[in-house]
Fold:
Amino acid sequence: MCTVVLLRRPNAAWPLIVAANRDELLERPWRAPARHWPDRPEVVAGLDELAGGSWLGLNDHGVVAAILNRRHSLGPAPDKRSRGELVLDALDHADAAAAAAALAMLDGSAYRAFNMIVGDDRDAFWIRNLGDRGAGGVRVTPVPPGVSMVTAWDLNDTEASDRTRLYLPRFRAAPPPDPSANDWEAWAALLDGRDRAAGADDPNAAMHVDTGWGFGTVSSSLIGIPARGTDTRPIWRFAATIPQRGAYEPVDL
Structure:
């Protein structure tokens, strides 16, 4: 159960801030974000070595794409396509609206269920796929301004998701990151949160997951997307968390 948190501030110097934890089987091999795909030289993304796709990426146009499993859909299925390829497909587009429009045309039954976030400095979208055909399969919803959060449940679902119920108010109350000053402290601390909501005994209810059975939080990312028309470049800070949390390091963009 991964987590993506977004702060949308239209007309701000940094209109989109993204924080993300990747929760995965610890033995699944991966590589840190880089330009791993010769046929996609404009894409910087983490590489899932097993299936060849990604969980989170950014292109040179300032489009961010992330994919998350929905509840009870961990791992591949022999009759389904890899969900990680959809991150790369989204990053083929020069803006988030075009990427979302293309994703809306997917046959949801070709993939296991997923949540997906696609955003840039102007727009952000939550794409939900329940894994079936028709209107119940793939649905595209704009992400509103402010702080939003998605896990294995719906966007901002504080009823079904124990993690969202506890941590969404904490992110909304925390000082927002200031990429210009390299200040990510409050959100970085929240990504490492081990607290669980009252009554939640599932280790997946924490922000930083450690189940003890080979599944947990393997990496964290903090991304800032600046407004277009300036000389400011996006910022991506990345930290591996296995076997222990390392320092956030800048990704070479």
The first helix runs from residue 85 to 90.
